[in-house]
Amino acid sequence: YEAGKRYDELNFAMLEMRLFLDTHPGDSAALAIRSRFENEYRAARRCYIEECGPLTIFDGDATQWVKNPWPWDWEGCAC
Fold first, then answer.
1. Residue pair 26/46 in contact by the 8 Å Cβ criterion
2. What secondary structure does DSSP assign to 6-59, as a single string?
3. Which of the chain's termini has less CB crowding within 10 Å, N or C?
4. How far is the C-alpha of 44 from the C-alpha of 11, rounded, in Å?
C-alpha cells in the first residue's frame, strides 16, 4: 500500500505543521514547508483515490463508496 503509506505520512506531517504554526505563526520557513507538504498531500490523496478508491464518502461518486473491494481488501496500489 505505497499510496496509502505516503498519504498517511503527509497527513501526519500536515497535522504536525499545523500544531507548530499554532505557536509560531510568523515562521516563514515553516510556512514554506507547510505549503510544500500541502501540495504533496493533495497529490498523494488524489493518487490514492484514483488508484485505490475513495477515502471518504465525499470522495467521488457516492455509489463507488459501497462497491467492493473495500480499501483494506486491496493487495496494493500502483502509486
1. no
2. HHHHHHHHHHHHHHHHHH-TT-HHHHHHHHHHHHHHHHHHHHHHHHH--SSTTS
3. N
4. 10
Residue with cell 488508484: 51
Cell of 51: 488508484
What are the distances in angstroms from CA 35 to CA 17, 21, 51, 69? 10, 12, 24, 34
Length of the chain: 79
> Between the CA of residue 31 and those of 12, 43, 66, what are the distances in Å?
16, 19, 38
Helix axes 2-23, 28-52, angle to 10 degrees: 150
H/E stretch holding 65: helix 62-65
